[in-house]
Design a protein that fits this description.
The complex is a heterodimer of chains A (141) and B (308). Chain A is α/β, with parallel strands linked by helices and 141 residues long. Chain A is built from four helices and four strands. Chain A is globular. The two termini of chain A are 14 Å apart. Chain B has 308 residues and is an alpha/beta fold. Chain B is 27% helix and 12% strand. Classes of the chains: A alpha/beta (141), B alpha/beta (308). At the A-B interface, helix 2 and helix 3 of A face helix 10 of B.
């Protein structure tokens, strides 16, 4: 896959929880913080509602990576949604191998509503990581 | 006029054919309405004509065709297409025909790996070249019948419950619609569910807690007792007219032979997500891909791991 990385622009599906990460992304926008344009943000009520099905489906339908961003532990608006997301994230990481994907294609991070620079940093790191890995084997174009 | 029935079997153990006999008395009402024109397990009907004069494998015209078994080689594929051409209604019977079944566990390996293991890799086998002449070549993986030809009706189960076969055939003969249950095994399961939490796993052959002779609705849910039960991600209906899931009746956890509730679902993802959410460490689940896709390996659910 190495030779294809020249000019490869990854597509990363990003699930942001409504209460923290989406507000953080919003703040990154209004603060005009720069980050790579490779992500597509999907707002969800809570990181805990993102079932492994959705993550696996995104990756097996051609997304190069999936980011799941939620509130810091203890800050969840729904008390323990992010804990649940964390428990499932371990299962997702394990299952990616069964689908022939690198575990690094999925990442769970905590981003609070005030952490705009952190949001930009996580996104930048993820894009760099995926660029290193190359396109997803499920990608059709 | 009798309804002409053709039946063909591919990669299968033959248990689903036995199930047709297992229908019992209702079979006596069904049989007179049927004229069996092709059924390798039951009658001597040759594919290339009775004296071998034909040049291509042919199946006689039929109103109803039943296929059991998944597509494992080129011969299976040809006969499946032939069945589709000659039969007005095509039924996929059994988990192998519907989802690949046990033979589809081979989809975890490439055909080259399989040949290598079978003909050269095993220490108890004298090494030999892979046979090429006079036998059909393997397909690149095991396919469910509906991946090769369109199927009108799927009757899953390992084997398909006799009641379901009888109901489906009766409905077909009377021109009535037949649909599979849309509930999960858990919806039919009578055991007691106390709280949604599993933190430790028990080995599958250990004895669950139950009182002999007491009804099942006094036994605690097997999943809550720590057995990996695939009921939540499996279609109901295996219990037949009695309605109680078959494996549960034998104090065993569901193994998922009826396949997922929706066609595209992946039981492994569903089960791993569910188990992780209720507190089980996902790392303790042994051989998750094969365990949760035991009967449904076709359709791209099981695939060889890429070499890195």
């Amino acid at each position: 896959m190495g030779e294809q990385t020249n000019g490869f622009e990854p597509l990363i599906i990003t699930f942001c929880c409504y209460w923290c990460a989406y507000a953080g992304a919003d703040l990154a926008g209004t603060s005009r913080i720069q980050y790579p344009p490779n992500i597509r943000i999907i707002r969800v009520q809570c990181s805990g509602m993102v079932h492994p099905n959705l993550i696996i489906e995104a990756l097996t339908n051609g997304a190069d990576g999936v980011l799941l961003l939620g509130c810091h532990p203890g800050d969840c608006h729904y008390l323990e949604g992010n804990r649940r997301a964390q428990a499932r994230a371990e299962a997702v990481t394990l299952m990616l191998q069964d689908f022939g994907l690198e575990p690094e294609r999925f990442r769970l991070e905590w981003v609070s509503a005030s952490e705009a620079p952190r949001f930009a940093q996580v996104v930048t790191e993820m894009v760099e990581q995926i660029k290193k890995l190359g396109p997803s084997p499920y990608r059709t174009q | 006029m009798a309804v002409r029935l053709a039946q063909e079997w591919f990669a299968i153990c033959g248990g689903c054919e036995v199930t047709i006999l297992d229908i019992g008395e209702p079979l006596l009402d069904i049989l007179p309405k049927l004229e069996i024109v092709h059924m390798p397990v039951l009658m001597d009907h040759k594919l290339f004509g009775q004296t071998g004069e034909g040049t291509t494998a042919e199946i006689p015209q039929a109103d109803v065709g039943i296929i059991s078994g998944g597509i494992r080689n080129e011969e299976n594929k040809h006969l499946a297409q032939e069945m589709r051409k000659k039969c007005k209604t095509l039924i996929a019977m059994g988990s192998c025909a519907c989802y690949g079944g046990i033979p589809a566990l081979a989809n975890l390996l490439t055909t080259d790996d399989i040949y290598e293991k079978v003909y050269r890799g095993s220490i108890t086998t004298d090494s030999a070249a892979t046979p090429k002449e006079d036998i059909p070549a393997l397909t690149d993986r095991v396919y469910a019948v509906n991946e090769v030809v369109p199927v009108d009706l799927m009757l899953p189960g390992c084997p398909t419950p006799a009641d379901m076969v009888a109901d489906a055939l009766t409905a077909l003969l009377e021109g009535k619609p037949f649909t599979l249950p849309t509930k999960s095994v858990c919806d039919e399961c009578p055991t007691i569910r106390e709280k949604k939490a599993v933190t430790t796993l028990t080995r599958p052959l250990e004895r669950p807690e139950f009182a002999v002779g007491k009804p099942l609705n006094e036994m605690r849910c097997l999943m809550e007792q720590g057995f990996l039960c695939q009921g939540p991600a499996t279609r109901a209906g295996c219990g037949g007219h009695e309605g109680i899931p078959r494996c549960i009746r034998a104090y065993m956890p569901c193994r998922g032979c009826f396949g997922p509730l929706t066609e595209k679902a992946n039981p492994m993802v569903d089960m791993m997500g569910a188990l992780a959410s209720i507190g089980l460490d996902p790392k303790v689940i042994p051989d998750r891909a094969a365990t949760f896709n035991r009967f449904v390996g076709a359709g791209g659910r099981l695939r060889p791991l890429p070499r890195r």
